[in-house]
Amino acid sequence: MSERNNSRPIVVKRKKVVAGGGHHGGAWKVAYADFVTAMMAFFLMLWLLGATTEDQRRGLADYFSPSLPVYQSSAGGDGAFGGDSAQSDDTLSGGARGAGGESGSEDGMMEFKLAGEPSLPDIEAMLLEALGDDPAATELLHHLMIRMTDDGLLIELFDRDEAPLFAPDTADPGPVLQMLAELLGEVMAMVSNPVLLDGHVRARAVVERTQQVWELSVERPQQFRRLLEGAGVDPARVRRLTGHGDRLPATSNSVAPRNNRIEMLLARHDAAPQGR
């Protein structure tokens, strides 16, 4: 019996080795995670589009816009998606800001306190409401730029090639500036912030014997101040008026008409009247 068992043939089993087999790593997991993330973002966007109003979507869009021209509306809204501009004091420090908060004072005048109220969206909404649907008046907005600074809301009025604010090389206000002053005067009557004015002019392409840039940079904001007072702005609100000549151009081309501008700062109530 033992001899019979010992005579059984020995079978050798060879394993077939396949090249490239074995563990392939987790690269597919990364690709899958990217796909899931993209789908989540896509459905989140669809949900936001369906759950928010147009004004609220503008408020969300403001989160990615540190500086906005005044003719782009960015008002907020109420509810879970309040639509407050993300450029608000409780979100960012210093730059373009405006957060939802209190509005109004004992005498009914809206106190424009940048630390707590929706500033930039409110001013934009006021300007757009004042303009209404008049296409001619809407053209005025192309002369305006609004941005927030550490000290307040800065409204910049500037020349365009085809429509200067003043008669060339003078401090005589043109029709565009007069209409802008009337428009801004209506809006500024709703707030009580101090006003700081700065004048800038473009450089001259040819050196002249008598440079008028300093005189113009002072006389032009003076004329604008008078226009604002004529539009109902309290003269006591103007705390400072400065002429900068052609020393602070707004563009790399110092002789460009865009450098002819007036900067009006609606200062914070708690900010010092001097300096930005």
UniProtKB/TrEMBL annotation:
What residue ranges are annotated as transmembrane?
30-49
> Which domain of life does the UniProt lineage start with?
Bacteria
Please list where the region (Disordered) is annotated.
Answer: 79-109
Q: What is its main location?
A: membrane
Mark out the compositionally biased spans (Low complexity). Answer: 83-94
A single GO cellular-component term from the record reads: membrane
Q: Does the keyword Cytoplasm apply?
A: no
Name the Pfam families for this protein. Answer: MotB_plug
**Ranges where the Motility protein B-like N-terminal domain occurs:** 14-67
Matches recorded under InterPro entries = Bact_OuterMem_StrucFunc (IPR050330), MotB-like_N_dom (IPR025713), OmpA-like_sf (IPR036737)
What are the record keywords, sorted? Membrane, Transmembrane, Transmembrane helix
From the Swiss-Prot or TrEMBL record, state where the protein is found.
Membrane
Q: What is this protein called?
A: Chemotaxis protein MotB
Origin species, per record, is Rhabdonatronobacter sediminivivens
